Amino acid sequence: MLQIKSAIAKNIVDKLKSINPQIELTECDVAGMLEYPPDSKMGDLALPCFKMSKTLRMAPVKIASLIAEGFSAPCVERAEAVNGYFNIFLDGGALAKKVVSEIDEKGEKYGAPDIGKGKTVVLDYSSPNVAKPFHIGHLGTTVIGHSLKMLHEFAGYKCVGINYLGDWGTQFGKLIVAYRKWGNKELIEDGGIDKLVELYVKFHEAAEADASLNDEARAEFHKLEEGDSENIALWQWFVEISLAEYKKTYKQLGIEFDSYKGESFYTDKMPAEVQKLRDMGLMKIDDGASIVDLEEYGMPPCLILKRDGSTLYPTRDIAAAVYRKNTYDFDKAIYVTSAGQSLHFAQWFKVVELMGYDWHDKLVHVPYGTVSINGEKLATRTGNVILLRDLFALAIEKISDIMNEKNPHLEGKDKIAEEIGVGAVVFYYLSNNRIRDINFVMDDALNFEGNTGPYVQYTYARTCSVLAKTEGEAKGELKISAPEEVELLKTLSKFEETVRDAIDTYEPSVITRYILDVAGAFNRFYHNCTILGADDADVKSTRIALTRAANTVLGNAFGLICLAKTQKV
Ligand code: ARG
């Protein structure tokens, strides 16, 4: 649709210039002003002429009717002026030719905006804290982050996905103390991350009664920082065990990271940045701690060093950003975390700016809202959490039950149930505007009849099954004969601008909404138009071509939000 829009915009500008050569309006301005009317009776595209009326010193009604006079453009059937709007009706046949041939030609690349060539994006996402549970609160950073990676990759950016593991900090002191008190090798080898988390929870319970445990933990962490070989070995082992568990979940989601450099990696990279802050006179001592005062910018101070000289979360983020800039020379560095960390990011982004790093404006924080399950909030310390692993397992189990009823003889049922179950959770989560808090209701996510993952995956499988029956079918002339065909075509043609919108706003929900539009348009077409049994050979081949086009677009869009292209359901 972008090409059609720009051709129309060009003709509109020509028209306006022929009336008044002084007019300063570009094709791009006008293309950006073209809207999709809510009701197709008002056209497939419309140009509201109200804003222009000031610059053109002419009434909107007059502008619209001047443009409408003898207007023509590719793919346009007719156009009319109504109450200050210039309404454009597209020609179904011409649209079909253009859209279907473009989709067939570009295939897996259809819908990809050509905006990222030669540019690098670094994405910091998922980044769980080792030995703490990988719970539903991490779903957001993991799937939003990965979706943003896929979107950028699709647009031609070189992407580096970084899992900035929380693999350093006082929690390791606690874990070491707890392990020596209550754990042993076999226990952890058999029980894995669950046992580590149990030890962590147990530590907190015990420390409530006996505060000296916290001192012990601090001392063990200090030893770790000093390079004590026993503590280092334990720490490495804890990290390995945790990572093995996370990777199972990533595999289910089809996620791979390009780097697992966690917080510990930056230990020796911080002193240089701290020194730079000191040399530039940006740091001051406040109650023994070193801070950067940000009052002028309406923010509380950014903490750089604690009273005992140890570094903090912002210190590490600053050092990591410098390292990544030097290593990857990024054009954008995206950080996906809960909105609870928005201030942290705003603060250290400002510090990076004050340090004179001219790439500070390439840092982007992408926040998201909280998740609760059936209204319950989650807390790590008490162990009251829903693990991502268990959430997926439950979804898969429920989908298996549904499938056993619906289609008990389906081949490869287990794999399909996994794809649909995991997809259901992901799609449900990504259907929301990321910043909104969501309450997870499993039965809603799994409903095949709702606006859900199972529904759209089922629709995709439906396109596959139509196409499987048509192999070798000769291509005929494209012949449009029903409004549902045109509606489907129009929806398919909007893919590229939708992808751009999702990238511009860092919002995967733009894609889930679009997938629902395509699925809806395809299902209306499927129910109202006979495909394989159509009498007219051209009508039949057109409908097959439309099914293929829908299959390509759905498949491409699924790839952008971690949804598997399941061919049979
Ligand atoms: N590990 C942190 C947490 O779980 C998230 C890290 C986000 N990334 C960053 N560069 N700060 O809260």
Are there runs of 5+ residues with pLDDT below 50, and where?
A: none
Oligomer: single chain
What gross morphology would you assign?
globular
Q: Helix segment count?
A: 21
> What proportion strand?
5-15%
**Fraction in helix:** 40-55%
Strands side by side in the biggest sheet: 5-4-9-10
Quickly list its features.
single chain, 569 residues, alpha/beta, four-stranded parallel β-sheet, 55% helix, globular, binds arginine
Account of the 3D structure:
The structure is a single chain. With 569 residues, this protein is an alpha/beta fold. The chain is 55% helix and 10% strand. It contains 21 helices and twelve strands. It is globular, with a radius of gyration of 28 Å. Arginine (ARG) binds at residues 124, 127-129, 164, 166, 317, 335, 337.
Quick recap of the structure?
By secondary structure, this protein is of the alpha/beta class. It has 21 helices and twelve strands.
Give the helix/strand layout:
Blueprint (H helix, E strand, L loop, with lengths): L1 H18 L7 H7 L11 E4 L3 H5 L3 H9 L7 E7 L2 E6 L1 H15 L13 E5 L12 H18 L3 E5 L7 H13 L2 H25 L2 H14 L3 H25 L16 H10 L3 E4 L2 E4 L9 E4 L7 H16 L3 E7 L3 H13 L8 E6 L2 E3 L14 H19 L6 H18 L7 E3 L1 H5 L6 H16 L14 H11 L1 H11 L3 H20 L8 H23 L10
Parallel strand pairs: 4-5, 4-9, 9-10, 11-12
Antiparallel strand pairs: 1-3, 2-3, 6-7, 7-8
Helix pairs in contact: 1-2, 5-18, 5-21, 7-8, 7-9, 8-10, 9-10, 11-12, 12-13, 14-15, 17-20, 17-21, 18-20, 18-21, 19-20, 20-21
The structure holds arginine.
Arginine (ARG) binds next to β9.
